[in-house]
Amino acid sequence: MSDPSPTPASAAPRTSPRRAARWPWFLLVFLAALAAAGWYGWHWWQAREADARAQVASADHRLDALAQRLDAIRDDQRAQVQRLQQAEATNRVLRDELLGIGQRAALLEESVTRLADPNRDGVQALRLEEVEMLLVFGQQRLEIAGDLTGAQRSYAMADAVLTAVKDPAYVNLRQALIQERAAIDALGADPRAAALARIDAFARGLSEAPPVAAGPAPAADAPWWKRAFANVFDIQPRDRVVAELPSDRAAALAALQLELTLARAAAERRDEAGFGDALARARGWLERLWPESAALDARRAGLDEIAALPLSLSVPTLGSTLQQLRQLRAAADVLPSERP
């Protein structure tokens, strides 16, 4: 039996010529498909980008339109606020005018009511006006000018006018006027005039009896050196020195007269504090002119009496009649308006 001939190991398989000619076509088809896919993808991306840009442009357009609408709404809102403010101002003016008209109407109604009141007497009203004016004049002349005579005349004229009023409602008022008039008549002289007269009398006393420089004579039992040098020097207390030289005494006397003049000016304006201070300074100048003696004590006492004098008129009931008259007139004016 014959063995088949062995196949050599180095022999390679043979490729079919048909299969070898087919693979380039597959490569070309793949490349064409890849190119087609790339072209389609590029066109799809371009279309998507265009669509996105169109959406962005549309959104921007809508945002611009919305901003314009918001601006228009804000303008309309401002216009509405201005109209509301103008309307509020107009309403406020109208309300004030209505209130003013109401007040004027109330005043007119009150005036008509007063004129229509049968109990109101025109002559009596004029007399009460005159009484009030005279009382005001009298009080001012007494408090401001210190004219006691003028005040008494004003109160006397007011009493005469009030006597002509026959209304029984004013009987108590006339009694109050009589009491106040009696208190004013009891004042007597003006205390300011009395104080000025006392100052003038004190100044005349100084001019009639001026201070004389006279040192005390040394006693007989004084030491020899004190009797020998008595005309050369004099020892005085430190807290109180009496002027001895003529020039010093003339200056002290002039200062005393000046303080008295200041006291007169303070009395004229009824300044009690300045009046007392000026007399206190004058008292100090007295001690500069006179040594301790009975004459100095008398002049001190005179200045103290002048300083204790009052300068203002004091009437506790001053103005009570005027106040009562005004209350009665106010009550008479209120009563007609309260009637139905």
TrEMBL record:
InterPro entries: HemX. The keyword S-adenosyl-L-methionine does not apply. The chain crosses the membrane at residues 23-45. Keywords: Coiled coil, Membrane, Methyltransferase, Transferase, Transmembrane, Transmembrane helix. One of its GO terms (biological process) is methylation. GO terms for molecular function: uroporphyrin-III C-methyltransferase activity. Residues 56-87 form a coiled coil. It is an enzyme of class 2 (transferase). Its EC number is 2.1.1.107. The keyword Signal does not apply. PANTHER family: PROTEIN HEMX (PTHR38043). This is Uroporphyrinogen-III C-methyltransferase. It comes from Marilutibacter chinensis.
